[in-house]
Amino acid sequence: MTRYADIPKPIRSGLVVVDPERGTPQRIIVLQFNPDTLERSVAPQAAGGEGDSGGGGSGGDRNEALRLKGPAQETWKFTAEIDATDQLDVAAPNGIHPQLAVLEMLVQPTTAQLRAASHLSKKGTIEISPIETPLTLFTWGSKRVMPVRLTELSVNESAFDVNLNPIRASLSVGMKVLTVSDLPAGHRGAELYLAHLAQKEQLARAAQGGSFAQLGLGRGI
């Protein structure tokens, strides 16, 4: 008889915040529940550009029709759930404020960074570099570990305690996969993207090929 203890516990998806210079993890964010669905979009970077609309006219250079400028632009969307009633380690005085704050800080500069930028501005610094955030990795099992930038974080809080602390929320998360086209050469995130792409190539080689007969092309093309 199979016991509950014998059933493998599913791994969880999540985010890892990494120091881009040292490569050391700064924070590991484990999603409380794995999302039920993932919406992925993969758009090729065609060399023809936007002018080549495929309308049959002279919109682009014919020599560029099969060329790519770089890696495809990939985006991910999913809904994450946080529920204090399902986990006993949430501090009652704060509800799920800490869990929400951790995710929101992925798209916010820190107060120290803002104060430093303000200080430079008061000193008369002409050009102040944009604030750099840590490198964020999204993990969905061992075969999907990729550098990302959060592009959307929409929070729907649906239950509160007596002190109006949220205790249940649904988060719509949108991410853009960062490629070698987005990051400087030698950046740790660029190397992690290449590893992610190499994993994809390996999986593609493992797929079984079809035949001309299955396509109704008995004699080939």
Give a written overview of the molecule.
- Residues 43-65 are annotated as: Disordered.
- Residues 48-60 have a biased composition (Gly residues).
- By secondary structure, the protein is an alpha+beta fold.
- The chain has one domain (4-41, 68-203).
- Helix content is 18%, strand content 31%.
- It is built from 3 helices and 7 strands, in the order ββββααβββα.
- It has a 7-stranded antiparallel sheet.
- The protein is globular, with a radius of gyration of 23 Å.
- The relative contact order is 0.16.
- Mean pLDDT is 86; it is low at 51-56.
Helix fraction by DSSP (H/I, runs of at least 4): 10-25%
Return the structural class: alpha+beta
Helix-strand topology string? EEEEHHEEEH
Strand-residue proportion: 25-35%
Mean pLDDT score, rounded?
86
Query: How many helices does DSSP assign?
Result: 3
Unreliable segments of 5+ consecutive residues: 51-56
Compute the separation of the termini in Å. Answer: 55 Å
Annotation, overall tally of beta strands: 7
* Biggest sheet, spatial arrangement of strands: 2-1-5-6-7-4-3
As a whole number of angstroms, the C-alpha radius of gyration is: 23 Å
Total domain modules: 1
Q: What characteristic shape results from the CA principal axes?
A: globular
Characterize the biggest β-sheet: 7 strands, antiparallel
